[in-house]
Amino acid sequence: MNPLIKTCGALLALLSNVAFAQIPDDSRQLIVVTTPDWNAIQGTAQRYERHGQGFQKVGEPFAIVVGKNGMAWGTGLTTPAPDQQPLKREGDGKAPAGIFTLGSAFGYASTAATRLPYTTSTATRECVDDSQSSHYNTLVDSLAVNKDWTSSEQMLRKDQLYRQGIFVEHNTPASANDGSCIFLHIWRSNRAGTLGCTAMDPAQIQQLFAWLDPREHPLLVQLPVAQYEQYRGRWKLPSR
After folding, report:
1. What pLDDT does 120 receive?
2. What's the CA gap between 139 and 233, in Å, rounded?
3. Which of 24, 84, 86, 91 could form a disulfide with 72 if both were Cys (CB 3.0 to 4.6 A apart)?
4. pLDDT tier at 82 (50, 70, 90 boundaries)?
5. How many H-runs (helices) and E-runs (strands) does the chain carry?
6. What does residue 19 show for φ and ψ, rounded to 5 degrees?
């Protein structure tokens, strides 16, 4: 095959994944996060539940903060093309934009009122952000695995930011340098951006713990407002 045709075909496939992704029919819970633009730190989240063919809002919208440098296209149920900008990279201080599944919940307490799989954070619990590690972008107990990393997030912190949190399945399985350790967690304040996570008031995290149900295949959708409206119809997203 002509190399140019092969390259163009691969690029079109990637573009199609972004343009024509859809919310799966078995996903019945959505968390929709929107910000004013790619560089904004502050934004709004809204919960939705599927009723019939559409989604209805659940509760009131609530404030969130994203990365200290805004958002960039990430990899989840949507896969951006290599030349699509802005593109999420390790250490860029940007939260991933796109559609993502949610993983396990974690926290400082030994138990939690949640239906999500839950892991108690300990002094040896870490999330590896060293892209050269075989454990890149995974939560591990450093005493239970071969430690081949030089950089990680300590999950049991002296502050309250990770007192309750949820792992976002961005860049899973991991590709080197595409970003790691993305969580929903407690904010430092309503004006302080994160290193790439989406953060909120403690009461809102607690509400998500109680509401999310793995049997409903919940998803996180994060986009600047203009991109949300651009893809809303094609992705079968609810009206804001």
Report:
1. 98
2. 35
3. 86
4. confident
5. 3, 13
6. -70, -35
